[in-house]
Fold:
Amino acid sequence: MTSAGETNQWNWKSRFFTIWTGQAFSLFGSRLVQFSLVWWLTLSTGSATVLATATLAGLLPEVLLGPFIGPLVDRWNRRRVMMLADSAVALVTLGLMALFWTGQVQVWHVYAAMTLRALVGAFHWPSMQASTSLMVPGEQLSRIAGLNQALNGVLSIASPPLAALLLGFLPMHLILSVDVLTALLAVLPLLFLQIPEPARTQTAAGASSTAVFWRDFQDGLTYVRSWPGLVAIILMAMVINFLINPAFSLMPLLVTEHFGGGVFELSWMESLAGVGVIVGGIALSIWGGFKRKVYTSLLGIIGMGLGIVLIGFAPGHLYGLGLAGMALVGLMSPITNGPLFALIQSTVAPDMQGRVLTLIMSLCSSMSPLSMLIAGPVADRLGIPFWYVAAGMVCLLMGAGAFFIPQIVHVEDQVRTGSSASDPASLNGRVPAAAD
Structure:
């Protein structure tokens, strides 16, 4: 006879992984279509400015609107948000399909579609992440985060070649139909499975929706500011994004100018990074990390720093050392990011997670354009390897130094001991409302 504990464990697994599988299909379709659209822009225009504009179109909604989307995600029914978001992606893609099918598509249509898809994604991602903490037991969150990281690695490797294969055999409107199908696969489980909702602050009688929104927005900022350890982790994440993003953007130049390689050598660098992400994600999903999640992330930061330093120090004739460094960076990426997401999901109040997650992602994403403005001139003046060495050393020192900062080491204890501005009893308490 199955025990109650075993039944409960099966219940959360069957519900969560059914929803997770649908979302994985949707993510795969989005990655495949995104690559196809970028390739279409490349062939149609051959313009670097067009590609840069397309990148901004996919980035700006999250950077500019993320902090304002968080309060809405925390106030609205998250299951419905996810269903509407996936449905909206399908509708946007259907419109683009019609334009390609009739031969009327123009570059600005693709810009608009990318912007709308990014806007919808800015609602969907925090809704799924915040819902995960209410569906998955706290001790399993690091493993789920590792699984998500491994999935991203698989999609990064598999989506581009599959998209390239389809581009060789199918017209663009049929390739876009994949995204519509996978979006529907994501919606289907949500029609039948419930997602717990957190207990929410009651709205005062007579309060306008605008007043409620701004109160929720200010409460989110106050919540983060009153938690020193969380503020320190956000600042570290911003620094890491500032340092790491240019390293990947400068990779083609590093391969061609420093290692004297070509597209084959570049593909090996990117592929090994993807393989490293998969291995690291699977390892984290099996291991689960240290009991203190922050220790696992700090170890990952140190490992990433070491990998980047190896790439920067590798002489031009030791391309293999650069490959090893890149594989290490990929391996340590899920070890760094997975536990951080799990830490937020397990310690941030359930009704605050949308605001906290969108604020973190917005601040981290904003580092990309800023860092590229600085990294380009620095690399031109001091050499591309210099950026890798400097970025890696900063990561190494920051990861090691954080072990001696009590606010960071004890970030998970701060909530349990009530040092947050919110009621500590409500922070870890999972009081799900009935999802309808």
Q: What stands out?
A: Confidence is low (pLDDT under 50) at residues 1-8, 416-436. The chain has two domains: 11-196, 215-420. Residues 98 and 289 are 47 Å apart (CA to CA). The chain is about 80% helix and 0% strand.
